[in-house]
Predict the 3D structure of the following.
Amino acid sequence: MSQKKDETAAAVVALLELLAGEGPANRFEAPVAEARRQGVTGADLETVEQVKRLALALHARLDRRQQWSAALTTLVDTACDLAAPHAMEDTLKIITRRARLLLGADVSWITLPTTNGRALRLHALDGHVSMLNSGLRLPWDAGLAAAVLAHRAPLWTSDYLTDDGFRHAPEPDQWIKAEGLHAVLAVPLSRGTRPLGTLHVAERSVRHFSADEIALVNMLAEVGGVALERALHMAEAREEVSVLRERVQHAETELASVRRLADAQRTLLDLVLGGCDPHTLAEEFRATLGASVLLCSAHGTVVACAGEIPEDRQGALARAATDARPLATSAPALLEGGTWSVPLFTGSHYLGALYVDAGPSITGDETELLRHAGRAAAVLLFLQEGETAVAEGQFRDELLDDLLTGGPRPREQLERRARRLGVDLDQPHVVVIARPEGGTHAQAVTWASSRARRDNGLKTTHEDNIVLLLPGTDPGAAARTVHEDLASLLGHPVTVSGSGPVADPAAVRHGYREAARCLDAMTALGAVGTSASTREMGFVGLLLSDHVDAERFIEGTIGPVLHYDEQRLTELTRTLDAYFDTGGSPTYAAEQLHVHPNTVARRLERISDLIGADWQKPERALEVQLALRLSRIRRVLKERGEPAGHPAADQEA
């Protein structure tokens, strides 16, 4: 009996030694078998087996604790890894790699919603063997991931393809089948209550996941969710920093560009204000712009050239400079051959054009350089123009004075002087006399000088009046324009008269005399502060004219009636004569014409249609009667064989 007790104690000690030495579980049966072989039976053998069972239970508990401790160590290591800043993709890779190692799984991956939130996309797969995952998009409402996001709790399946506990979709099922996966565990990858995505671990065999495994993956997902959110914030911050860096670089580039442009503008203006000549400025343009430069005046002359521009090309560009005036803009314009044209203005005053052979395409900075160069060139031409303006103004005044006084100067000399000033006296001009009725006379003279130079005309003062010789054929329109502009400038009434047109140096004096008589007539008639021309004053203008033009007066007054009679063989002119002869009575006129009064009434209506309904008013009626009388005299003279419109005939009329 004592020997059996010793064998029992030896078996118990052996079991305890195995437990203390953390021996494998399959070796715990050996001490029990040895006790049986030594003859231990009954209660003693039952004691040994009970000790074995307790030892195995303790061994399993210790093993579980060791596994849990190792898992916690893995989680701590993962948290340490994720504590360092990582890009989003690197963060996802760390999470999936640690999830796979944590459970010893075959495959792990993460699904995240797409940007528009209408699908899920696979990220950071670890352990996969197929290529079907490349760019794989999953439906947002199907698959295990969609179920996890909907319930916000871990879900698992022992065999994915045969499980009907969630909705299936072709895309994830095809990929699961290609990878040979069965058991899949998915937990929400979240930050607090906000789900960011799902973390998956999977096995290529059918199995069940324990509560400890689910808890471990869930804890990893919580740690990963914090890291993922931080990675997202860091990605957003990096993007914002990148945008800010680009803006700063853009701002620095623009600032450097502005400084370069400011330096170039300062250099150009210093040259101009320092009194440089146009050729020096053109050379500076060439050095600054890196291209050949041509500077032309508004009159089509070459002021300066720097670079290799053929003479025929210079001439063509100089002629084109005269056509740039109507543009009224200083914006550079591309011409044929890669030449840029920059019109030069001071206010609305056109000075010329700057041409630069900079090629068909230029940058924004180069465009600004062209603008700065154009401004500098405009300032130079303006300063030069100002230096010659006084002398040129005196020449213009003297030329118009000589034309008005009709001195003994040869016509050729007058025309030559006019051509030097850019005035062609053989072209139609109108004479305008302006008499300010108040205000500063000097201010009116200054305005007149500017107006004459702008319109390429002449100006002078004569007998305390301002006299203008302007290109044009309508003296009335010119007088109205001068009246409106000058009255608006002075703020006082201005009386303006006009005559012409004249197209001969000798005719300027006669035009001035007619305009002067018209001005006196306006004063006598109480029309001070208005504008008129001899042509607009009807028969009064006829009387004021140096050369009586009865033909024009008749044509302007009753010409439509005369033409109507000639073309249709009617008697409207006879009806007018009878109407005025009978004191304006249609009835008596009908008796004189031997027609019915209604016929006279219809003829008078036709006359109103032809020359205006106001022809019966006293002022118009007087002009119509005078025109009828002159027309009758002209007809008599023609019957005598004298040419119509002969000066002697006009004087007799």
